[in-house]
Amino acid sequence: MRLEFHPEARLEFHESAAFYKGCRPILGTAFTNEIESVLRRILEAPNRWPIIEEDVRRCLTRRFPYGVLYTIESDFILIIAIMHCSRNPGYWRNRLL
Hints:
Blueprint: E1 2-5, H1 7-23, H2 25-44, E2 51-53, E3 56-60, E4 66-72, E5 76-84
Parallel strand pairs: 1-5
Antiparallel strand pairs: 2-3, 3-4, 4-5
């Protein structure tokens, strides 16, 4: 199975990494590594994480306050959002249309 990103999810990933890199370069690298680790865990066992709404699942990061929201499609996993867990929790819903 492969991963596909919603364009806004990819943008969130890059913008969040740039934010942490602006704080401290090592944090930008750590954030990127953490999200990549989450993506690998999702690929290994996509059904492991709970459904939070309809067929959207969420896998939380361990070090940063982020969750990766995704759906399991027939031949790929769609990353819907790289969501900061303390901000506007439902903003990504329009991406399901």
